[in-house]
Design goal:
The structure is a homodimer.
Chain A lengths: L16 H20 L3 E2 L5 E3 H4 L4 H7 L2 E3 L17 H8 E5 L4 H10 L8 E10 L11 E10 L5 H16 L5 E7 H10 L6 H8 L7 H10 L4 H10 L3 E3 L3 H9 L4 H17 L3 H4 L2 E4 L9 E10 L8 E6 L13 E7 H10 L13 E3 L7 H13 L4 E3 L6 H10 L4 E4 L2 H6 L2 E5 L5 E4 L1 H8 L1
Parallel strand pairs in A: 1-5, 7-9, 13-14, 13-15
Antiparallel strand pairs in A: 2-4, 3-4, 5-6, 6-12, 7-10, 8-9, 10-11, 11-12, 15-16, 16-17
Helix pairs in contact in A: 1-6, 1-14, 6-12, 7-8, 7-12, 8-9
Chain lengths: 456, 456
């Protein structure tokens, strides 16, 4: 294979050192916050049995699942005439396994398989790639990481409160200041449809309402009429709708008051009030929370509070979201396991940090200092110096060849290694080292102890 | 799908919280050592174009690559009569992508694609899963992690020296004390075959020699004769062969002396001497290194020093290995890029720690302390307590419901959370908390400051 034809599959990416240093920073920040809140890690196989995944994501989802060809002679059960029956019928004969599509179905599968030994409430986080045979486009990839945290086996709204805190903590550690957490409740949406005169049609209503952050009310209203909602329904909805408002606002109180006769909505508002009440002990979290009546979130399995984290003043859309569900595992025949979960989109977070100009400020090299190989005969000295630095927690490396100084400095520059140490025979005899700051260009002679202090 | 039929594909595994806490400890130890030595992270896509992987692992390897079915109508180019041409011919029509089989071919592909912008020597590490459609058995999985570190673009033996140091550092941090690093050199093997009278036949010879750690010399000798090596060859080989010996031993000096007329072997010994000479500044590393003339390592692309890390006194075999190669990228048409690399087998390391009884000593829960929900009305107080603990770096959680104390303690026990805090209305009024050590069963009342000090 010639070098000219080399490529990677469309919609996938190589992450070089510079990107990985940032990505690992994001991963370790999220992991550290998850663990601080008592979530424990879980990993499931990349491959699941096709029967586990099929039928869980709708017809369109089924199409987007990557199937794995059976190994060995995958045609052993295939007859020529099978080709005429089409690819859907053929699939069962040539493929038994597929790549996971999200982390929620594998979680449900894991919980069902281990339900007799697991300790509930089960608090797990999972950070692994998922695969979707989607059409690649800006910000949409065929392989991407999800970072999920779920509490399974409790209806306690304390979980929601802690999720709000975790979001705020991750944002603070990543130095993302300008964002809001949009919040709504599935039962408020159900109550709203009911209250306006179309009980049970909240899904259709929500799909249209969801567009309000992109289009004007008129467009949404027309769409609802086209869907067969009545003029009265649309008028009532228009009266009730709010913008994205604070939970402490008069508008929020007014809406709650107006809908209080509706039992579904009242239950939803009671949940939100309970959450807001507990979060009020943490004003820095509460100030990020907004009520958004048009927030719907697609996945139909949500049944309680739902939320989405939206950075402000940037192009990147929501970077995290989640909600409460009553039935995690009923698709696998086990009922009555409720829970709540949320997910960070690592790629979106990366894009956001990049748009905010924060990625260039992060370390792009593992090494903090390059020891120049000035003199081949001094390699034992250099190795001993490296060993001392590393024991002091300083990542460092020796240029592996006694190349020209210019080349070695260019290497440090290209890798954005901030410091360089030079030591020739004379300096080594005198017990001094020259430390050069590649940022400012200044250099200074010093002893080993001072060097370690300076670099640490 | 009924719960009874749920399973995961054979040869794959779920890693629950307890296993993951240990695995993450191994991962972060290795990552930290790699970075301390100046290696930077790289990640490549799970899926590679099938053409990139095919032909790189031999015929048997090609069979073991997991192929991904084209998405959409994968039969669009297939005619019924194609079925009769067999699965190998069919493959090209239904699959374009495959799951990576190791991390070396993706590295080579990445280096070729980015050779004009990369800074050489390129020091990268990569920790990602690989997939092989192998027959599953004890310790052999279809999905497993590899942790590779390579230095690409230099012939400097300093890299080998640093790899020895990195191995020793990882072992020390994982508290694995009893192990050796077996070392050999491909040119010594070539020289040996030449010296004994069968030039160019070192590969065949090595396959037999490699069995010496499992069978007696007689068996190896018979196999060599069967392969067509002469009696003289076998006799000469028997005279020269050593056991697993120290580089400081008389036997090693004697072998070197005997073979010094052979140019290939002399080059190999010169390399090893240079490595040993530099490592001698680090006696704790040197004492782990052994010369092993029968070490061959399978992959044919190695061309210089080769090595393998073998724990002693346990069932688990080698947990790490690697070597030097002259041509990383020639399979992709780019010549003259040498390098050296090695890899840790995470699953083997896990099995070893487990065999050594070290996995039970590691934390199995993310939380260090469970705050009991003694009184539902005190949840705001509990949340504020949690917030204080977390700000002090203590991972903790609140039981989400005001369940019976017995149930909450059982939860902490099952999750191996070492401490429990109980605070009822009276205690909160008095500004005291009860801290219970679940290991010893002792408990004590104390103020918040003392609690934080104790847990930190």
């Amino acid at each position: 294979m010639a070098k000219e034809n080399l490529s990677i599959p469309r919609g996938t990416r190589d992450f070089g050192p510079q990107q990985m240093m940032v990505r690992n920073h994001i991963f370790s920040t999220i992991r550290s916050v998850f663990e601080r809140f008592g979530f424990a890690p879980l990993e499931t196989p990349s491959m699941e049995n096709l029967s586990v995944l099929t039928g869980k994501y709708g017809d369109e989802g089924d199409q987007l699942i990557y199937k794995i060809l059976n190994s060995g002679d995958f045609l052993s059960e295939v007859k020529p005439e099978d080709v005429q029956n089409g690819h859907k019928a053929m699939l069962r004969k040539v493929s038994e396994k597929a790549l996971r599509y999200d982390l929620t179905v594998p979680l449900a599968r894991y919980v069902v398989m281990n339900r007799n030994t697991l300790t509930f409430p089960f608090k797990r986080y999972q950070m692994q790639p998922v695969w979707r045979a989607d059409r690649p486009s800006f910000g949409r990839y065929r392989e991407f990481y999800q970072c999920d945290a779920d509490v399974v086996g409790t209806k306690s709204l304390i979980c929601e409160v802690e999720i709000m805190q975790m979001i705020a903590e991750v944002m603070e550690r990543l130095e993302i200041k300008d964002y809001i957490i949009k919040i709504n409740h599935r039962q408020i949406l159900a109550g709203l449809a009911d209250f306006c005169g179309a009980p049970g049609r909240e899904a259709e209503m929500s799909v249209s309402l969801d567009k309000l952050d992109k289009v004007e009310w008129k467009v949404v209203a027309d769409e609802l009429i086209q869907k067969g909602f009545s003029e009265t329904f649309v008028q009532k909805l228009e009266q009730l709708r709010t913008g994205i408002i604070s939970f402490l606002s008069a508008d929020f109180q007014k809406l709650k008051e107006e809908m209080k006769s509706n039992e579904l909505a009242a239950k939803g508002f009671a949940d939100l009030d309970a959450i807001v009440n507990l979060v009020s002990g943490f004003p820095e979290v509460l100030e990020k929370m907004r009520f958004d009546l048009s927030l719907a979130r697609g996945l139909s399995y949500y049944s309680g509070p739902i939320f989405e984290v939206v950075p402000q003043g940037v192009k990147v859309g929501s970077i995290s979201g989640g909600g409460r569900y009553d039935e995690l595992t009923s698709v696998f025949g086990v009922d009555g396991i409720p829970g709540v979960g949320f997910s960070f989109g690592i790629d979106r977070v990366y894009d956001l940090l990049s748009e905010l100009g924060k990625t260039s400020a992060m370390p792009s090299s593992a090494s903090k200092v390059l020891v120049v190989q000035f003199d081949e005969n001094q390699v034992p000295f250099y190795l001993s110096l490296l060993s001392t630095l590393r024991k002091s927690g300083i990542s460092c490396e020796l240029y592996p060849e006694a190349a020209k100084l210019k080349k070695q400095f260019a290497y440090a520059d290209a890798k954005q290694i901030p410091w360089v140490v030079v030591a020739g025979e004379d300096e080594i005899k005198e017990n001094v080292l020259t430390l050069k700051d590649l940022g400012t260009g200044t250099q200074k002679k010093m002893g080993l102890l001072e060097l370690v202090e300076k670099l640490r």
